[in-house]
Amino acid sequence: MGEIDVRGLSCPEPVLIVMDEMDRDPKAKLVVLSDAAHTRDNLVKLAHEYGRTATVSMRGRDFEITIA
User: Fold this and answer.
1) Beta strand residue intervals within the chain, DSSP E
2) What is the pTM of this model?
């Protein structure tokens, strides 16, 4: 399981980073930290486009998106 920190990055950079990781290892579980709601929404949509599940929880004030 990898953890990717995209806090402070502007779109589309977080989506491209996560997309690269999913392409590199299609079965790997990823945990992504984001500080922006629109990034959270885009990453959940991306996960579904790849046929994967995404769950969102909070880690302090940040979003933790788990892609499996």
Assistant:
1) 2-5, 30-34, 54-59, 62-67
2) 0.94
